[in-house]
Amino acid sequence: MNADPVPVDLSGRRILITGGARGLGAAMAQACVAAGARVALTDILHEAGAQVAQDLNAVRADSAFYLPMDLADPDSVAQGVKQAAGALGGLDGLVNNGAITNSGGKPMEEIDVGVWDRVMDVNVRGTWLATVAARPWLKASGRGRVVNLASDTAIWGAPRLMAYVASKGAVMAMTHAMARELGEDAIVVNAIAPGLTLVEATEYVPQARHEYYRSGRAISRAQVPEDVVGPVLFLLSDAAGYVTGQVLPVNGGFVMK
Q1: Which of the residues 131, 137, 158, 239 has the least number of beta carbons within 10 Å of its own beta carbon?
Q2: Active-site amino acid positions
Q3: Phi and psi angles of residue 5, each rounded to the nearest 5 degrees, phi first
C-alpha cells in the first residue's frame, strides 16, 4: 500500500471502514491513518484484514484494528460496529465500503434469485444496518460523518450487472434519506460513486470494459484506488460539515452530474 499523503487533517478521528481488507477499503484505511485518524477495519477476509491492520500499526502504533463482520448477517453487523466503537473509544466516521458484485456478465434474465438477494443483503441492507448501529456513537461525537460507497454504474446504467447496479442505486437513494434523518443528530451523510477502479475485485472484468471506461473519461487513464481516497477523506473532515445528502461521481469524467 503506497497511497500518497493528502492534505486533510483527521487527527483524533475514529473511523470504521467496512470491507477494509483489500482494494478501496484498504487504501482508504491507509489514507485515514496517514491523515491522523485511527481506524477499525471489518471484513469477512480475516487473514487479509488482519494483515492490513498489522501493516498500519507498523507505521503508527495503535492506529488500526481488524474486526470480523459479515454484512449479510444482521447480528454480525451490530456486534462488529459495537466492537469497533469499543476498540476506538467511539466513532466519528463510518465508511460503508463493503459490497459484492456476484452477477457480473449475466443478462438480467439469467441472474439467480439467490444471488440477487445476497447482493441486496450485503450492499443495501448491510449499509443500512451498519449506519443504524453506528448512529448513537456518531451522534455522541458531535461531528459524525457517513460516507457510502455507491457506483457510477447506477448513474449511467451499466448493462449485464443488474443486481449490483440496482443495489448501488439504492445506496444513492438511501444516502438522501439518511441525510434527512441523521441531520437532526448533526451527522452528515454523503456518497462517493467511483468508476471502474483497478482493484482485486475488478480483475474479472473483461479488458474491453476497462478500455470502454478509459476511452470515455475526460481524464483518459486507468482509475486507481488513490483517485478515490482524497474525496472520501474530504467528506470525513471538518471541511465537509455542511455538505450532506450528496452523491459525488469520482470517475475521471466518465459520467458527470
Answers
A1: 239
A2: 164
A3: -60, 150
